[in-house]
Write a structure and sequence with these properties.
The chain is of the alpha+beta class. The protein has helices spanning about 10-25, 30-35, 40-50, 70-80, 85-95, 100-105, 105-120, 230-265, 280-305, 315-340, 350-360, 365-375; strands spanning about 125, 145, 150-160, 170-175, 185-190, 195-200, 210-225, 225-230, 270, 275. The chain contains twelve helices and ten strands. Helix 8 packs antiparallel against helix 11 and helix 9 (about 280-305) runs antiparallel to helix 10 (about 315-340). The longest helix is centred in the middle third of the chain and has 36 residues, at about 230-265.
Length: about 375
């Protein structure tokens, strides 16, 4: 196999390790976790024991010293479990919700929060989304007012992922200054603090193993030691990373769906022959494989630039748009090939069809991402 310049033998070996872990420790339990709405903390501990929770973090804080591409490989292989909810949970735990702590957190925050997460000892939630917000992470309606040497938080975050079992949540907030010069920051909020309340888990069409709830903060006192000061450039960078992980999960799910459907088409008989021998089915499978490979290569090219600190936004936007659209298109066409079986919950295609629909909304709807692409090419 010819490897791309950004795809090394080390990455390929890591992929094999992750794939074996997913096959043994995740895939057999997907149905149970879907029914119970969430996976238990033991999964994170198992991943930590297998050195899979801190792939692109330095060894000295509990990571494995890899690059961001290793995180993309993890997201892809998690997608191949055929369960988008589990993939998102783990990406939040190992990447999105702790990346700001790593980049801008203090050594004390690394020791108290980041390292325990990477060891699977603590669970973190990601508190960014809010009502009436743009799809990006550049604004916040949780307000933090300085009181003596601490901060008082008030506001609400909606659809907080990974929250119902979380020990703490990383909250995007605006620090209100008396001079009117407000700035945005992240705050580490322990979930046991007075004034922190969580709604019942939200009932969703798909991604059922991903626990999602609304977070309300009412006069929550947070120590100044738990503030993470960031800049607008980093907020944009973490948004780009979110889009890349979403694309990678979509690519993994699409590949898994294609493989399932190919096997089904080769074994399903109609008119005394496998349905894969019918031209309409074989051509559809060929189109699936072509589109999946294109989306994967586009995502790899985007993370290659991201690794070099050259955030090529238009490529990332296109990767997210293409991968999430194709993953749902593959799921929809696969369900059609499965026929009535595909519509039954006992077959994984039904779950995949539900899960992939959210990917075209999460992190920015198709329409919003198209606007961003148009702006990049000065089409507006």
């Amino acid at each position: 196999m010819v490897l791309e310049p950004y795809h090394t033998e080390v990455h390929e070996q890591m992929r094999k390790i992750i794939r074996a872990f997913v096959k043994k420790e995740i895939a057999p339990f997907v149905e149970h976790w879907e029914e119970t709405i969430s996976a238990n903390k033991n999964l994170y501990r198992k991943m930590a024991d297998a050195n899979l929770l801190g792939l692109h973090y330095p060894v000295e804080i509990g990571g494995q010293g890899g690059d961001h591409y290793t995180g993309i490989v993890l997201a892809e292989e998690l997608g191949r479990a055929g369960c988008g909810g589990l993939a998102q949970k783990i990406v939040i735990q190992s990447n999105l919700a702790v990346y700001p702590i790593f980049e801008f957190g203090t050594s004390e925050q690394h020791s108290e929060y980041l390292s325990p997460v990477l060891k699977g000892e603590r669970v973190v939630a990601y508190g960014v989304t809010q009502l009436h917000q743009n799809s990006t992470t550049n604004s916040s309606y949780v307000v933090a007012k300085k009181v003596d040497n601490d901060y008082m938080l008030n506001g609400m975050k909606i659809s907080i992922k990974n929250y119902t079992k979380a020990d703490f949540v990383l909250v995007l907030a605006t620090i209100a200054n008396n001079n009117g010069d407000d700035n945005v920051c992240f705050l580490i909020v322990d979930t046991h603090l007075p004034g922190v309340s969580i709604s019942n888990p939200l009932s969703k069409v798909g991604m059922r193993s991903l626990d999602v709830a609304h977070l309300t903060l009412e006069n929550v006192k947070v120590s100044h030691k738990h503030v993470i000061n960031i800049n607008e450039k980093f907020l944009n960078r973490i948004y780009m990373l979110e889009l890349l992980y979403t694309a990678a999960i979509a690519n993994g799910i699409a590949q898994y769906t294609y493989e399932l459907t190919l096997d089904y088409a080769q074994t399903r008989k109609a008119f005394n022959k496998s349905i894969s021998n019918f031209q309409i089915i074989s051509h559809l499978l060929a189109e699936m494989k072509t589109e999946i490979d294109i989306c994967r290569e586009l995502t790899y090219a985007a993370i290659f630039e991201f690794n070099k600190e050259n955030t090529s936004e238009k490529v990332i936007f296109m990767a997210k748009l293409a991968a999430t659209q194709i993953s749902h298109w593959v799921a929809d066409r696969s369900l059609q090939i499965y026929g009535g079986h595909g519509y039954m919950e006992e077959y994984p295609i039904a779950r995949i069809w539900r899960d992939t629909r959210l990917l075209r909304i999460d992190g920015g709807t198709d329409e919003y991402i198209k606007e961003l692409i148009a702006e990049q090419f000065q089409l507006l």
